Amino acid sequence: MADPGLVVVDKAPGMTSHDVVARVRRLAGTRKVGHAGTLDPMATGVLVLGVDRATRLLGHLMLTEKSYDATVRLGVSTTTDDAEGEVVAETAASFHQPGLVAAEFEELVGDIEQVPTAVSAIKVDGKRAYQRVRDGEQVELKARPVTIHELVVHDQHVVGDWLDVDISVRCSSGTYVRAIARDVGQALGVGGHLTALRRTAVGPFGLDVARTLEQLGDDLAMVPIAAAARASFAGVDLDEEQASHVRFGRPLDLALPGPGAHAVFAPDGEFLALYEARGEQARPVAVFV
Predict the structure, then answer these.
(1) Record's SUPFAM superfamilies (predicted)?
(2) Helix and strand tally (H, E) in the chain?
(3) What is the pLDDT of residue 141?
(4) What is the mean pLDDT of the chain?
(5) Phi and psi of 247, rounded to 5°?
(6) Tell me, what's the pLDDT at 136?
(7) 146: which strand partners?
(8) What stretch of H or E contains 194?
(9) Distance CA 145, CA 163 (A)
């Protein structure tokens, strides 16, 4: 069985995130494999998976920001806000000026309230929203706070009566890029959906360290759990006495250098736990030993 750590996969189109998990389970020789944030079948790019104890790290990684490259088609609305859905409306959009289009995308930068796409994995009364849609139900999801840190508009191409817009987005976890396409299309009065989506980074893990499933060898190109923790969180190196307290999940009389979770390490470099400041002490968020 593989040692605990992260596997950063460059997902191919047409596969579900579960398909990737199943493949890595076979390669790792364990069922204890999970992923940090679903990618739709049409999407490609960075999918971070945890193996063995590193699966517990994934819930904390999901709090980090993500980056995407995408193509938005203005002038066509679909049931899923992407190219996999059925077309529900078409409106000429090729007449829109590049500056006006770019300005509408820029309106979404910052802290916003976003209504997730109806075919999201969000649960409504215990049932996934996408399953309710497939069962013919009308799904009304509430707006949720998300942050779009950066949104860059690149090329704009006229395709028949429609307008394709290439964008790059850096956003908080929980942001739906499909909803960005939908909302900009609605603001311009022509509708919109995604025709392409590629995730380029999850937190500190980008395409530069990602491998396709075909490229993964016996070692799975694993990022060891200690290296993953140092890359994802501010790190604190402890002495032997402090490390012994951490192994029992005890609070530490320790001033952490900032807010949020910190990765704490034994003198030999072993990753022990995530701790955060609470009052005058540092207390455990999750212990990994």
Answers:
(1) Pseudouridine synthase, PUA domain-like
(2) 7, 18
(3) 77
(4) 91
(5) -60, -20
(6) 65
(7) 112
(8) strand 192-202
(9) 29
Which domains, ranges and CATH numbers included, belong to the chain?
5-64+203-225 (3.30.2350.10), 66-200 (3.30.2350.10), 233-287 (2.30.130.10)
Q: Do the bridges between strand 44-51 and strand 192-202 make them parallel or antiparallel, or are there none, so unpaired?
A: parallel
Among candidates 169, 170, 166, 146, which has minimal Cα distance to 157? 166
pLDDT at 259 over 70: yes
Q: pTM of the entire structure?
A: 0.89
Separation of first and last alpha carbons in the chain:
18
pLDDT of 135 reads 60
Name the pairing type of β-strands 234-237 and 262-265. parallel
pLDDT digits (tens, 9 = 90+) for 157-166: 999 999 999 9
Query: Of these residues, 3, 10, 40, 218, which one is catalytic?
Result: 40
Alpha-carbon distance of 105 to 71, in angstroms, equals 13
Tell the burial category of 226 from Cβ atoms under 10 Å away from its Cβ (0-12, 13-18, 19+): buried
Residue 179, both tokens: 């909803």
The single residue listed with the structure tokens 């394709």 is: 164
Say if residues 192 and 77 touch (Cβ distance below 8 Å).
Answer: yes
Q: What percent of the chain has pLDDT over 70?
A: 92
Catalytic, 40? Answer yes
* Six-digit token string for 222: 């694993």
Confidence of residue 50 (pLDDT cuts 50, 70, 90): very high
Strand partners, 199: 45, 68
DSSP 252: B
In the beta sheet, which residues pair with residue 168? 69, 152
- pLDDT confidence of residue 3: 78
What phi, psi does 134 have (nearest 5°)? -60, -30
Q: What's the mean pLDDT in 13-23?
A: 94
Token pair, residue 83, equals 């190219």
CB atoms within 10 A of CB 147: 16
> What would the two tokens of residue 158 be?
């006229």
